[in-house]
Each structure stands twice: as structure tokens, then as C-alpha cells.
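Hey, can you fold this one?
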Amino acid sequence: MNRLLFAVIATAVIVAAVVLGALAGTPPGSSPPSHSPVLVAGATPRPAASATATSPVATTSPSLSPTPSPQPTPVLVPAPLTGRLVSPEVAAQHPIAVMIDDQADARPQSGFNAASVVWQAPAEGGIPRYMLVFQDTIPEAVGPVRSARQYYIDWASELRALYVHVGGSPQALATLGQSGQGQLVYNADEFRWGGRYLWRIKERFAPHNVYSDGKHLRALAKRVGAADGPIEPAWSFAPDVDVDRRPVGGRISFAYLANAIRYDYDRASNTYIRRVSGQSPQVDAADGRRVAPKNVVIMLVQFGRLNDGHPEKKRLEARNVGQGTAWIATNGRTIKGTWRKAAGDAPTRFFDSQGRAVTLTIGQTFVQVLPVGTKVSIRDGAVPVHDPLLPEAS
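Sure. Predicted structure:
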């Protein structure tokens, strides 16, 4: 009887264990399964069970992209001689004026396209000479460098420029000796500084072989005390006008005795493509690009024979202080006005027929100084008239 009772009790215990295991969903002796939580709409999710040592649960933090730091907007200011937007440091670079040869053996010259302003005027017997003024752009090469003249010193003195030359007329050398330490300009004569800051190239013969570059001229400016600093602009500048307001065609021409100059207006680039003595467009030997300024100014000035004791040189002097007739060409249009210069070192300014200061286009300016009486031919193009009845060109 006792054995039978024991067997019944044992059987009941086993059945109860099986039933309880089935209700729990876990077979006897097995580990509980791992389940992902299921969320029911509207229900509050329960905290996940802590992981066991034998069933680790990996957790990761969300990846966040770093927020970039705002970059400072560069500060730009108008360059004083071109109106181009440049850094304040570039706008303060000391101007450098370089005398450049214009005889046939000197061509093609170097440095034109880096110049902010180019002056051209008669020098000896009517043969012209250039003065390239560098400020916001420094040339890779510049030359051939030639001798000084008093009226070029006057124009360079408007900026207290470093004045680079190879000798000069007695009149010019006397002025440089008295006022070439910054009073008017900073004298940079090749006779003193040649071999270090200027040099003679072998590819050309003297006197058409003196050259330099922007790096050496900037170093020379520092050497003679021509420090960088604020420059007071003498001219005003504005952006190019819209292309549909620019004319098609247009030409300006004149001559310095044998050296004929011609500008052809180019509507697309809003520049005046330059030619010398009937040749194809003038090219700057430093960069291989054609010479094409944004502005062309013509000044009529009284010239006379310089009585310097060397009549064979046929040197000239100019009455470039005062006022006279001027033509100002920009954006394909040319107006007649006046030039004014109150003193030798005062700025040369340009005015329209009503006495208002003219506004030039941002970029390079060529100033063509011609003797009074020179024949100047100016023919502006015409702005195309749009007919609203005609279809637009594709």
C-alpha cells in the first residue's frame, strides 16, 4: 500500500512540473529565450531586461556629425588705382613707377598687364616712352627700363612712388638728387642699384636690355624706405555696365610721329584692345597676353624743346600743371572733358564737360599724353537696338 501511494504522489509531481513548464513556455531544464520587445500602439514601452553575462546586449550611442565652425568672411577693399577688390594689405602696397622703352628694338616689352596705370608721352624728338605704375598687382618681369624725365617724375610724385629708371635728363636727375628720398619720389636709379635689383639680359642689346621683376622691386622699395601704407585714391571707379548697354565696335587712334597707336573696343570683355604701329594686338612679353585696358584717357599738353645743353638729344619739357583738353573712354563710350593738376605733386584728375569728376571702370587705365595739336580720331560704336517684334537670339 505504501509503495502504491508513493508512486501516485511521484507521478502527480512530475505531471504538475510539465504543466507548469508548458504554461511558462520554457521546457524544464532549459534557459529562458531572449525576446525583442514588441510595442503596441498607444502602449508605454517597458524597460528592457538587464542582459546576463551569457547573453550580452550591445548598445551604441547615436553618431553625430560635428558642426563646422563658421569661416570668417575675408575683408576686401578697393585698390586705390584700379578699384579692384583686394585685401587691405595689398591695397596698402607702395606704388612702383617704372620707365619703359618704346623704341622698336624694345618690343615686345614686359609688365604692361600687371600695371594699374600706364602713362605714355613723348620723350625724345617725339619718340614716346611709357611709365608703368604697379600697385595691386606685382609683375613677373618688367622692362626694358629707360631714363627719367621731369614730367614723368611729376606724375610719379602724385603717389610718392618708387621711381625706377636708368639715368635721365639733367633736369630730371637734379630733381631726383634734391627730392628723391621721399620728398617727391623714392629714387631708384639703375646706376646705383643695378646688379642687385635690376639687371641686363643677354637676349637684347643696350640700352634696351635692363630688366627687373616685382619681387626685386618690392625689396628695393623696402630698401630705400618706401614703406607700405594708406593711399588716397584720386579717381573713382564703378563696375562694368551690362553688356546690353555696351556698343558694338568703336575705335580710337592717334600717333606719336612714327609710333601710331590704335584702340579697338571689344564689347564682350569691355576693354580696348591696343595696337602699336599697325601691328597685330600688342602683347605683354611677361605673360603672353594681349594688352587691353578698361579705360583710355587722352590728355593734350603743351610740349617744347628742353634747353638742357644737349640739343642733339631733342629732349622735351611739358606743361603738365594746370588744365587742358581730355577725352575719357570707358564702357565703349568717349566723352570730351578736361584734365586738371594743381601742382607738380598734386593728382591729375579728369572732369566731364560740366566740370564733374568722371567715374572710370574698375580695372587698368592707360593715360595717353599728346602734344596740343595732335590729330585724334575717335569713333564710338552703337548699342544694338532690340526690336520687340523680332525673336530673341538663341
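The chain is about 15% helix and 30% strand. Let me know if you want another pass with a different chain boundary.
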